[in-house]
């Protein structure tokens, strides 16, 4: 969040239609939305949950999900985001109680920035129904079987080498099996990460550490802090790290024009749909993510995640050193990362990259998520290939919902969207992939037109 115009914590609460300030601290003061929206800066942050006003200025630094994800809602109504991110809201509310400074005045609407009250209420009613019907409860057997198939792939890859030796064909097959297990482990730790955001001692949290750390060699905390921002404000520039392309690409319809008008040319963007194949899928995980993960763990002194990550590499070298030696083992895991990176990029980007991208527009939760996401048609293969992230809409609306329930809530979400005229997009797998390239070309053409003519 930007600086500027910093407010003090003791700002005088507003008087609204005869309702007095009500006594400062202790939660008895009343505020207008105009007053709340002033407190949206780095050193001064308020937000609203269920009409209660909280000063999170100091708490944001200690927020388990990271300072950025909670700061993204400073000055706004965060009710739906709060419900979406926390599997056990009652557990979290005890941390909110000391932060309470008041509530919205009775004359104030429950929703800021002129949001569609009927749509917001209908979505909250849908969420209540989802909770009543138990669709947020996970089936442990499902995830045990899923973890079992990942471990089986790892064991088969190693077993083939022990039994048949290291021919080129078997080494390639082994690499493909390891890349598959790595990709599937990525989808699994994604589930555990969303389900472990409240209680750090929960089994979900321990399993996430095991899967992302020991099975993948990455960092759970790095993933959590990055991914929760993506869910909080998907496809919003400066708030969603997944659209921070570091000037390598221009994305959406507005950013290319902005770059073109400013005559910014860090790359030949009108060719980005071509060089994407060279630096996007091949390099995201092996290079960019690896550098970012190591840097984050050391800067934050996250030694627990570092130990989990090192256990992955120790296991890999213990298992494959007898067959390939040190440099051969490095080459093997690098090739596996290369294959996994392609899989990861196409699955994650086909749901988001062709969708709307913009600066902050303060939309309601459902509209914001639907404008930034689309679904891929359901099939047994699509479910497995994408880790059920073909149901990206349902996952974004209900991040803590276990994946085996997405297909149950999808008809309810579609009906709600039809009622309020919110587009609900479903594509084939082929169209989802080709739209990634089409969107990059469109954005590149917009940049070139603005660069040459504006």
Automatic annotation (TrEMBL):
CDD domains: Delta6-FADS-like (cd03506). Residues 1-23 are annotated as: Disordered. It comes from the Eukaryota. The chain crosses the membrane at residues 141-164, 275-293, 313-336. Its main location: membrane. Belongs to the fatty acid desaturase type 1 family. This is Fatty acid desaturase 2. It comes from Oncorhynchus kisutch (Coho salmon).
């Amino acid at each position: 969040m930007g600086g500027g115009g910093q407010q003090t914590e003791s700002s005088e609460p507003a008087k609204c239609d005869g309702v007095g300030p009500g006594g400062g601290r202790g939660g008895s003061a009343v505020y207008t939305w105009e007053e709340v929206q002033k407190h949206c800066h780095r050193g001064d942050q308020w937000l609203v949950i269920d009409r209660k006003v909280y000063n999170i200025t100091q708490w944001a630094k200690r927020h388990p999900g990271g300072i950025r994800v909670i700061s993204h809602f400073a000055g706004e109504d965060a009710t739906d985001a709060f419900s979406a991110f926390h599997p056990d809201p009652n557990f979290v509310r005890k941390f909110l109680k000391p932060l309470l400074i008041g509530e919205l005045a009775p004359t104030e609407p429950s929703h800021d920035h002129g949001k569609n009250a009927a749509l917001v209420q209908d979505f909250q009613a849908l969420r209540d129904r989802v909770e009543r019907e138990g669709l947020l409860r996970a089936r442990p057997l499902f995830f045990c079987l899923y973890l079992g198939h990942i471990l089986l792939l790892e064991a088969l890859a190693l077993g083939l080498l022990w039994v048949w030796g290291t021919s080129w064909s078997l080494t390639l097959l082994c690499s493909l099996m390891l890349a598959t297990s790595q990709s599937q482990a990525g989808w699994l730790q994604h589930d555990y990460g969303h389900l472990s955001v409240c209680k750090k001692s929960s089994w979900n949290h321990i399993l996430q550490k095991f899967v992302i750390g020991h099975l993948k060699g990455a960092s759970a905390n790095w993933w959590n802090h990055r991914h929760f921002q993506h869910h909080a404000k998907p496809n919003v520039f400066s708030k969603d790290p997944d659209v921070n392309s570091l000037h390598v690409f221009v994305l959406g319809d507005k950013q290319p024009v902005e770059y073109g008008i400013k005559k910014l040319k860090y790359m030949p963007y009108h060719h980005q749909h071509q060089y994407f194949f060279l630096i996007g899928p091949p390099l995201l995980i092996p290079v960019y993510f690896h550098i970012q993960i190591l840097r984050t763990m050391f800067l934050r002194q996250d030694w627990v995640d570092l130990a989990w990550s090192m256990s992955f590499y120790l296991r890999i070298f213990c298992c494959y050193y007898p067959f390939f030696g040190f440099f051969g083992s490095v080459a093997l895991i690098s090739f596996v990362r290369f294959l996994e990176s392609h899989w990861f990029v196409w699955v994650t980007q086909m749901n988001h990259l062709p969708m709307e991208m913009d600066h902050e527009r303060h939309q309601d939760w459902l509209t914001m998520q639907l404008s930034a996401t689309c679904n891929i048609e359901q099939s047994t293969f699509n479910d497995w290939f994408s880790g059920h992230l073909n149901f990206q809409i349902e996952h974004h609306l209900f991040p803590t919902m276990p994946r085996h329930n997405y297909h149950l809530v999808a008809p309810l979400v579609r009906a709600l969207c039809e009622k309020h005229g919110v587009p609900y997009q479903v594509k084939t797998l082929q169209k989802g992939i080709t739209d990634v390239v089409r969107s990059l070309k469109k954005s590149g053409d917009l940049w070139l037109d603005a660069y040459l003519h504006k």
